[in-house]
Write a structure and sequence with these properties.
RibonucZ/Hydroxyglut_hydro; 7-stranded mixed beta sheet; Beta-lactamase; Metallo-beta-lactamase, Chain A; 5-stranded mixed beta sheet; 246 residues; alpha/beta
């Protein structure tokens, strides 16, 4: 994402396979690997799991690029030899080149004791704001930062039989939209341009659609636009100025 003249690479998977160490259960490979740009101002990592702190990609990126990460993800890049790593606990913030403020908030629970990061980014010159949470777990703390211009989060559920939704989108996206009244919402957790293998793929089911979310937003008198960019597309958002009440 490009904000305040800064290029921020978020949870990148650009090359190589995605594996959690149990390939019989789940493995994925890109149909087309992406070019790794040298023009990156910051790497932003929300979680330490391989689908967010992707080792093959991080190994190829320039280790001199500054990194902002959750404590769990910070350990991954530190072990790889990255030189400048800022670890953000919930509630802490980091300012990138005096242009963009990045605030860490509670995000996805990983097991019973660990909660990873979501991020609220603000362009300091214009107050443009963007919220990112990749699994659909939104902290009520967000309400104090409303309104937010853009949300990047799941817009459909990904569910397993008996377990239920492991990625929360359908109701979660509507709830956070009510809190933040964004102008745009973009999906995470949609299938990438990849080949998926393993036992889990046979049972993983998408529940809901972008059209369902659009209908729910309209029913709740929200004008939020639901966008569905294709992998690799460059998307420029035309934002409306909001009225300010003093």
């Amino acid at each position: 994402m490009e904000i305040g003249g800064q290029r921020i690479l978020v949870d990148p998977w650009l090359v190589g396979e995605l594996s959690f160490g149990l390939d019989w259960l789940f493995k994925a490979s890109l149909k087309q690997e992406r070019l790794i740009s040298e023009d990156i101002d910051l790497i932003l990592l929300s979680q330490g799991l391989p689908d967010h702190a992707h080792l093959p990609t991080l190994k190829q990126l320039d280790h001199k690029i500054p990194v902002v990460a959750s404590p769990n993800a910070a350990k991954v890049v530190q072990d790889l030899g990255y030189i400048s790593v800022t670890c953000l606990e919930h509630g802490e913030s980091f300012t990138l080149n005096n242009q963009v403020e990045i605030r860490a908030l509670p995000g996805s629970p990983i097991g019973p004791t660990l909660t990873e990061n979501s991020y609220l980014l603000k362009e300091l010159a214009t107050n443009f704001s963007l919220y990112y949470e990749p699994h659909g777990y939104h902290s009520p703390q967000l309400k104090q930062f409303a309104p937010v211009d853009v949300i990047i989060t799941p817009t459909v559920d990904l569910a397993l039989p008996l377990v239920g939704a492991i990625i929360r989108g359908t109701n979660s996206a509507l709830e956070v939209s009510k809190w933040l009244e964004p102008q745009f919402i973009l999906p995470t957790a949609a299938k990438a341009d990849a080949i998926y293998e393993g036992l889990m793929v046979n049972f993983l089911k998408a529940v809901g659609t972008a059209e369902d979310l659009r209908a729910s937003l309209e029913k709740n008198n929200l004008t939020t636009q639901v966008l569905e960019p294709k992998p690799g597309d460059r998307l420029k958002l035309a934002l409306k100025k909001r009225a300010v009440t003093c």
